[in-house]
Design brief:
By secondary structure, the chain is of the alpha/beta class. Helices cover 32% and strands 20% of the residues. It is globular, with a radius of gyration of 16 Å. Bound molecules: D-xylitol-5-phosphate (DX5) and zinc ion (ZN).
Protein backbone atom coordinates (compact mmCIF):
# COMPACT_ATOMS: atom_id res chain seq x y z
CA UNK A 1 0.00 0.00 0.00
CA UNK A 2 1.28 3.48 -0.78
CA UNK A 3 2.29 5.94 1.93
CA UNK A 4 -0.11 8.90 1.76
CA UNK A 5 1.28 12.33 2.63
CA UNK A 6 -1.32 15.11 2.41
CA UNK A 7 0.27 18.53 1.88
CA UNK A 8 -0.97 21.09 4.39
CA UNK A 9 -0.17 23.85 1.93
CA UNK A 10 -3.76 23.35 0.76
CA UNK A 11 -5.23 23.18 4.28
CA UNK A 12 -7.37 25.85 5.94
CA UNK A 13 -4.77 28.12 7.62
CA UNK A 14 -7.50 29.76 9.70
CA UNK A 15 -8.34 26.42 11.26
CA UNK A 16 -5.28 24.21 11.02
CA UNK A 17 -6.24 22.28 14.14
CA UNK A 18 -9.38 21.00 12.48
CA UNK A 19 -7.43 19.82 9.44
CA UNK A 20 -4.78 18.21 11.67
CA UNK A 21 -7.49 16.31 13.51
CA UNK A 22 -9.07 15.25 10.24
CA UNK A 23 -5.69 13.85 9.13
CA UNK A 24 -5.11 12.20 12.52
CA UNK A 25 -8.41 10.36 12.16
CA UNK A 26 -7.75 9.40 8.54
CA UNK A 27 -5.51 6.85 6.87
CA UNK A 28 -2.93 9.54 6.09
CA UNK A 29 0.57 8.36 7.00
CA UNK A 30 2.65 11.52 6.86
CA UNK A 31 1.98 15.25 7.23
CA UNK A 32 3.75 16.89 4.26
CA UNK A 33 4.85 20.39 5.30
CA UNK A 34 6.02 22.76 2.56
CA UNK A 35 8.40 25.52 3.60
CA UNK A 36 9.07 28.26 1.00
CA UNK A 37 11.35 31.26 1.32
CA UNK A 38 10.48 33.45 -1.67
CA UNK A 39 14.05 32.96 -2.96
CA UNK A 40 14.45 29.34 -3.97
CA UNK A 41 10.83 29.40 -5.15
CA UNK A 42 8.66 32.38 -6.10
CA UNK A 43 6.32 31.98 -3.15
CA UNK A 44 6.38 32.17 0.67
CA UNK A 45 4.44 29.67 2.76
CA UNK A 46 5.01 28.99 6.47
CA UNK A 47 7.94 28.21 8.70
CA UNK A 48 9.20 27.09 12.08
CA UNK A 49 6.49 28.37 14.48
CA UNK A 50 3.69 26.84 12.43
CA UNK A 51 5.51 23.50 12.23
CA UNK A 52 6.11 23.50 16.00
CA UNK A 53 2.37 23.86 16.55
CA UNK A 54 1.49 21.18 14.01
CA UNK A 55 4.01 18.91 15.76
CA UNK A 56 2.01 19.23 18.97
CA UNK A 57 -1.21 18.38 17.12
CA UNK A 58 -0.12 15.03 15.68
CA UNK A 59 1.77 11.81 16.38
CA UNK A 60 2.10 11.10 12.66
CA UNK A 61 5.33 11.54 10.72
CA UNK A 62 6.14 15.19 9.99
CA UNK A 63 7.68 15.26 6.51
CA UNK A 64 9.20 18.72 6.05
CA UNK A 65 9.97 19.78 2.47
CA UNK A 66 12.36 22.73 2.44
CA UNK A 67 12.10 24.86 -0.69
CA UNK A 68 14.64 27.34 0.63
CA UNK A 69 18.15 28.52 -0.12
CA UNK A 70 20.91 27.53 2.30
CA UNK A 71 18.83 24.83 4.03
CA UNK A 72 21.99 23.75 5.88
CA UNK A 73 21.62 26.81 8.09
CA UNK A 74 18.31 25.54 9.49
CA UNK A 75 18.84 21.81 10.12
CA UNK A 76 18.89 22.14 13.92
CA UNK A 77 15.95 24.55 13.92
CA UNK A 78 13.71 22.15 11.99
CA UNK A 79 14.78 19.27 14.23
CA UNK A 80 13.79 21.41 17.20
CA UNK A 81 10.46 22.26 15.53
CA UNK A 82 9.69 18.55 15.28
CA UNK A 83 10.58 17.33 11.78
CA UNK A 84 10.89 13.55 11.41
CA UNK A 85 11.98 13.73 7.78
CA UNK A 86 13.89 16.75 6.52
CA UNK A 87 14.07 17.15 2.75
CA UNK A 88 16.42 19.58 1.03
CA UNK A 89 16.63 20.36 -2.68
CA UNK A 90 19.62 19.06 -4.61
CA UNK A 91 19.57 22.37 -6.53
CA UNK A 92 19.99 24.33 -3.26
CA UNK A 93 22.91 22.36 -1.80
CA UNK A 94 26.56 22.74 -2.73
CA UNK A 95 27.60 20.16 -0.14
CA UNK A 96 24.63 17.82 -0.30
CA UNK A 97 26.45 14.83 1.20
CA UNK A 98 27.46 16.86 4.24
CA UNK A 99 23.91 18.21 4.65
CA UNK A 100 22.46 14.71 4.55
CA UNK A 101 24.93 13.42 7.12
CA UNK A 102 24.06 16.31 9.38
CA UNK A 103 20.31 15.71 9.08
CA UNK A 104 20.81 12.04 9.96
CA UNK A 105 23.20 12.79 12.80
CA UNK A 106 20.40 14.79 14.43
CA UNK A 107 18.11 11.76 14.33
CA UNK A 108 15.97 12.73 11.35
CA UNK A 109 15.46 10.87 8.09
CA UNK A 110 17.09 12.61 5.15
CA UNK A 111 15.20 13.49 2.00
CA UNK A 112 16.46 14.96 -1.25
CA UNK A 113 14.05 16.77 -3.56
CA UNK A 114 14.68 16.94 -7.30
CA UNK A 115 13.19 19.56 -9.60
CA UNK A 116 11.61 18.55 -12.92
CA UNK A 117 14.70 19.61 -14.92
CA UNK A 118 17.20 17.73 -12.71
CA UNK A 119 18.32 14.23 -13.73
CA UNK A 120 17.88 11.52 -11.13
CA UNK A 121 21.27 10.17 -12.24
CA UNK A 122 22.83 13.00 -10.19
CA UNK A 123 21.81 10.98 -7.13
CA UNK A 124 23.86 7.98 -8.22
CA UNK A 125 26.74 8.49 -5.77
CA UNK A 126 24.46 9.32 -2.87
CA UNK A 127 21.42 7.10 -3.17
CA UNK A 128 22.56 4.72 -0.42
CA UNK A 129 22.71 7.62 2.05
CA UNK A 130 19.21 8.96 1.34
CA UNK A 131 15.99 7.82 3.04
CA UNK A 132 13.55 9.52 0.64
CA UNK A 133 13.85 11.05 -2.81
CA UNK A 134 11.12 13.62 -3.36
CA UNK A 135 10.63 13.76 -7.12
CA UNK A 136 8.94 17.01 -8.05
CA UNK A 137 6.22 16.39 -10.60
CA UNK A 138 5.51 20.14 -10.86
CA UNK A 139 7.82 23.13 -10.58
CA UNK A 140 7.86 23.78 -6.83
CA UNK A 141 6.23 26.83 -5.32
CA UNK A 142 2.50 26.34 -5.63
CA UNK A 143 -0.20 23.79 -4.95
CA UNK A 144 -2.83 22.87 -7.50
CA UNK A 145 -0.59 22.57 -10.58
CA UNK A 146 -0.73 19.91 -13.30
CA UNK A 147 1.39 16.75 -13.09
CA UNK A 148 4.28 16.76 -15.59
CA UNK A 149 3.92 13.45 -17.51
CA UNK A 150 7.70 12.96 -18.03
CA UNK A 151 7.92 12.32 -14.28
CA UNK A 152 6.78 8.75 -14.96
CA UNK A 153 10.02 8.07 -16.87
CA UNK A 154 12.01 9.59 -14.02
CA UNK A 155 10.30 7.36 -11.47
CA UNK A 156 11.27 4.28 -13.49
CA UNK A 157 14.87 5.44 -13.87
CA UNK A 158 15.12 6.24 -10.16
CA UNK A 159 13.66 2.86 -9.23
CA UNK A 160 16.32 1.19 -11.41
CA UNK A 161 19.04 3.20 -9.70
CA UNK A 162 17.75 2.28 -6.24
CA UNK A 163 17.64 -1.44 -7.09
CA UNK A 164 21.02 -1.34 -8.77
CA UNK A 165 22.65 0.33 -5.75
CA UNK A 166 20.80 -1.82 -3.22
CA UNK A 167 19.32 1.25 -1.56
CA UNK A 168 16.25 1.24 0.70
CA UNK A 169 15.35 4.78 -0.32
CA UNK A 170 11.65 5.59 -0.85
CA UNK A 171 10.35 7.43 -3.92
CA UNK A 172 7.96 10.26 -3.05
CA UNK A 173 6.00 12.06 -5.78
CA UNK A 174 5.10 15.66 -5.13
CA UNK A 175 2.80 17.80 -7.26
CA UNK A 176 -0.38 17.32 -9.24
CA UNK A 177 -1.15 13.85 -7.85
CA UNK A 178 -4.80 12.92 -8.44
CA UNK A 179 -6.95 9.81 -8.04
CA UNK A 180 -6.78 9.48 -11.82
CA UNK A 181 -2.98 9.60 -12.30
CA UNK A 182 -1.95 7.92 -9.01
CA UNK A 183 -2.29 4.34 -10.35
CA UNK A 184 0.26 4.97 -13.12
CA UNK A 185 2.56 6.78 -10.66
CA UNK A 186 2.49 3.76 -8.36
CA UNK A 187 2.90 1.31 -11.25
CA UNK A 188 6.06 3.20 -12.27
CA UNK A 189 7.54 2.52 -8.82
CA UNK A 190 6.52 5.30 -6.42
CA UNK A 191 6.16 4.56 -2.69
CA UNK A 192 4.81 7.86 -1.31
CA UNK A 193 2.08 10.10 -2.75
CA UNK A 194 1.96 13.75 -1.70
CA UNK A 195 -1.46 15.27 -2.32
CA UNK A 196 -2.52 18.82 -1.55
CA UNK A 197 -5.46 19.97 -3.60
CA UNK A 198 -6.66 16.44 -4.33
CA UNK A 199 -7.21 15.91 -0.60
CA UNK A 200 -8.11 19.32 0.79
CA UNK A 201 -10.27 20.59 -2.08
CA UNK A 202 -12.29 17.40 -2.27
CA UNK A 203 -15.81 17.16 -0.84
CA UNK A 204 -14.72 14.45 1.59
CA UNK A 205 -10.96 14.61 2.35
CA UNK A 206 -11.04 11.54 4.63
CA UNK A 207 -12.64 9.45 1.91
CA UNK A 208 -10.19 10.77 -0.69
CA UNK A 209 -7.26 9.75 1.53
CA UNK A 210 -8.82 6.29 1.94
CA UNK A 211 -9.25 6.03 -1.85
CA UNK A 212 -5.57 6.94 -2.43
CA UNK A 213 -4.50 4.47 0.24
CA UNK A 214 -6.51 1.68 -1.39
CA UNK A 215 -4.77 2.06 -4.78
C1 LIG B 1 4.67 22.36 -4.33
C2 LIG B 1 4.69 21.63 -3.01
C3 LIG B 1 3.71 20.54 -2.98
C4 LIG B 1 2.28 21.00 -3.13
C5 LIG B 1 1.48 19.88 -3.71
O1 LIG B 1 5.71 23.24 -4.39
O2 LIG B 1 5.95 21.06 -2.78
O3 LIG B 1 3.86 19.72 -1.83
O4 LIG B 1 1.72 21.41 -1.93
O5 LIG B 1 0.20 20.33 -3.95
P1 LIG B 1 -0.74 19.66 -5.03
O6 LIG B 1 -0.92 18.22 -4.63
O7 LIG B 1 -1.99 20.46 -4.95
O8 LIG B 1 -0.06 19.76 -6.37
ZN1 LIG C 1 6.13 19.50 -1.17
Amino acid sequence: MPIIAPSLLSANFLNLEQDCNMLNNSQADWFHLDVMDGQFVPNISFGLPVISHIRKATQKVCDVHLMIEKPENYTAAFKEAGADILTVHIEACIHLHRNIQEIKSMGMKAGVAVNPHTSVQLLSDLIQDIDVVCLMSVNPGFGGQHFIPHTLEKIKALKQLILQKNSTCLIEIDGGVTLENAPSILAAGADVLVAGNTVFKSANPTATIAALKAL
